[in-house]
């Protein structure tokens, strides 16, 4: 029996697509990664169907590429790396299973978008810790599994946050639940006993979530997760702090984060911020900007905001800086709404030139200026204008580290510009890696660069892969699993 026929028996003919245009769209994406055209796209609706699909792949020998976000893909992780591949589109599994106000946690399937979860959480007085302006079709589960940084570093205690527990079908064809969800008892029995699937550790003392996160679908397919939520503020005020250099803002940011004063807290250069806000003139902004918010909740919200504003004012004065509610006619409140809401289509990063390529990694905040300087030097050697790249620096783990992201903007229809962009992308990535940038999410060509530095890690990961996906059906060719 052929691949399409066997999958149709599981999910129904209407849930299996062999449309040539649909399949060609998965052959490449907005990154510089190209691969194979899949045999078909299958759209399961339940965990039971996912389990049957994985077991069928093991018997028949075809590969599976999980995908849950819609819209343009940009990292190459959903481009099939092997022939006889099937894309498993999980967008139809879009149930919000429950929202628990008391424990501030939700359980969701992989097709749930940030917009849908925001609405459900807000009805319970809760907010979602989301990445910077996710596109409308962005899957919350995909974002959590890829460890995308959120704009709320105060609530980011561990790199796995805000992910809690999950249910996953491993490549071996086994259904597994992590953390507190592992048992004892069914989910319904746990809920009846007051449990909320919030502790990520387990079964026993193994942190399975950390193994599955960042795996780019090479170990299994996640069918639901539980995610931590936070209280929705009754009052939230935004502030700008501008400076001529990133160094001038770093000490101030450390002062804010050390005392856990702001909720939203992020830094961008003027090029990045102008693109985010769709502002016509980037030169109207200071070279670097820090945007933060302070919040008051149910009890005495105005009083809380007042003392936070006073304390931050003292930190700013000591650093020779001045927080402002508005900057060059743009209110910080407007910027917060943009940062905390869903992005439009196409992605805001594509507006200035039509396309982009991101370089991102982890570092410490005090080292960020040196990485910015290195990118500037590399871009200058390639004749790349400063106005064509943006910078976004997101503190994580309450400021212990930060996500550094450079966006190279270019017109993908211009073949020469695309070639130059790819050359700069590769050279800059290599230079940043050699200077100490930690590529914790090694997509595409980064995998060879990052794993080449640590053969012991490669050996350990291949042993894990051999246990959880012994036939190698899950997204072959990604990470170190060539």
A few lines on this structure:
This protein is of the alpha+beta class and 482 residues long. It has helices at residues 3-11, 20-25, 47-60, 114-122, 140-145, 187-192, 208-212, 247-258, 270-277, 301-318, 332-340, 368-381, 415-434, 446-451, 455-468, and strands spanning 16-17, 40-42, 63-67, 85-89, 96-100, 105-108, 126-127, 163-170, 175-177, 220-228, 230-231, 235-243, 265-269, 288-296, 326-327, 330-331, 355-363, 389-396, 401-410.
Word description of this protein:
It contains 15 helices and 19 strands. It has 482 residues and is α+β, with helices and mostly antiparallel strands. It has 3 domains: 1-232 and 452-482, Uridine Diphospho-n-acetylenolpyruvylglucosamine Reductase, domain 3, CATH 3.30.465; 235-340, 2-Layer Sandwich (Alpha-Beta Plaits), CATH 3.30.70; 348-434, Alpha-Beta Plaits. The strands form 5 sheets. It has a 6-stranded antiparallel β-sheet with strand order 12-14-13-18-19-17, sandwiched between helices. α1 runs antiparallel to α3 (47-60) and α12 (368-381) runs antiparallel to α13 (415-434). The two termini are 28 Å apart. The mean pLDDT is 95.
